[in-house]
Amino acid sequence: MRVLISFGLGALAGAIGVVLWFTIDPDFEAQTEAVAGGGNISVVFDERALAAIIAGELATLPGVSARPVVEVEVQQEGLLAVTFAIGSQGIGARGSISFDPNVADGRLRLDVAGASLGGLAAPEAVAALIEPPLQARLDEAAGSLPYRLVAIRTTDRRLTLDLAID
Known about the structure:
- There is one protein chain.
- This protein is α+β, with helices and mostly antiparallel strands.
- Helices cover about 35% and strands about 35% of the residues.
- It contains three helices and seven strands; from the N terminus they run αβαββββαββ.
- It has a four-stranded antiparallel sheet. The protein has a three-stranded antiparallel sheet with strand order 1-7-6.
- Helix 2 packs across helix 3.
- The longest helix is centred in the first third of the chain and has 22 residues, at about 1-25.
- The protein is elongated, with a radius of gyration of 23 Å.
- The termini are far apart.
């Protein structure tokens, strides 16, 4: 009988251990996905989508004839680090710019956090090029309904924008 009780207690302790292992965060890191932004629509851009949008907009700058090669890194600190190369076969320009996405009056605003553009354009002009296509995608997500941007998250190499339909 003692063996059976010992076996039952061991199985119970094992089951409790497995449940605790999968429910408790062993790294003690904050779960940013659990923080509600207060919105009811989320629009998510991964790094490749952001790079494609930015490459299309940079191609409209004066003096840029070919589609630039763009890489975007969504950083945990909340910044978007954009590096790009314009030109081909070793002739061209390289640059980088960091954006801090913010909410201003319920709309998306990209503030320039740092830039090295090599005289290609003013960083604010590049931000002004990139904001409209991102905002247009938010408009599409909301349809014809009035909305406001309520939260911005940069987790898992994605830029997530939370919208609240009014």
